[in-house]
Write the structure tokens for this entry.
Amino acid sequence: MSSFAPIIPSASLERADGMCCPAPGQVAFAGSGPGDPDLLTLKVLKAMQAADVILFDRLVSPEIMALAAPGIALEDVGKEGFGPSMSQEEICARLVAHARAGRKVLRLKSGDPTVFGRLDEELSACDSAGIGYQILPGITAASAAVAAIGQSLTQRGRNSSVRFLTGHDMRGFADHDWAALARPGEVAAIYMGKKSARFVQGRLIMHGADRATPVTIVEHASRANQRVLETTLDRLPADLAAAGLSGPALTFLGLAPRQSLAALPDLASDLTSDLNMELA
């Protein structure tokens, strides 16, 4: 007869009111989700209210930061792609210093910390310093964005897998298996893909992708200022430039918004209307 091993609570967390929170001298790495505070997990909320210090990323929404308990020290350690950033070395040093001082440290990242969150460097810093930690997952941007357009990341008969890609890495625009991505029916969620849109378009077309492949960009997924741009691979760079999206955005290759969502913000239509008014 098979049996399951008992679940042993991590030594790096303590219990409070039935929920987990950071323990003194240790770090909890948490995901704040895509920005809507209603999508924050209860476990992360409890950690936000029990920590001594929160080191948070730039994309964590103000509405979520407002849920931190009064008196907690808040440190902005945000990064911006191709823009001003705190070095990863300094972030790691701050985590270690706070934990060694006996504080309950919460490292709060947007989305899910395990998805393009540079989590490994910070886990390694804790390992090297002998500091205990726990990972508290969050809802990643792809999940919130695909819900916003009324679609599914996988569909029987269309795609049995989905790829999570990054538009750029530390060396610049990121390379991928473009031949596989160019096949009909493929679906990919591209994080940090606005600046690499023309690069992605060129690589896919070079490998035989249909220029009419649907592409959808969701800016500020789940937030009150969410916007959706529906376009195609052929028109991607031009439509993206015309839209002037300035916030964090998730790009879907191979997915279009479900047309039955009548209330879906139709950014492409807005752009067309504006253009017609200018030409009138």
Remarks:
- The CA atoms of residues 3 and 9 lie 19 Å apart.
- Residues 1-12 have pLDDT under 50 and may be disordered.
